[in-house]
Amino acid sequence: MALDKSFIKMWEGTEKSSGWTNPFKSKTPLKTRIVQAQYQLRSIISRLEVCISRLEERDRSLFERIVEALQKNDKMRATMYANEVAEIRRAAKSLLATQLALEQVSLRLETITEFGDVMVGLAPVIGVIKELKGVIKGIMPELAIELDQLG
Question: 18, 30, 58, 69: least surrounded by Cβ within 10 Å?
Answer without folding.
Answer: 18
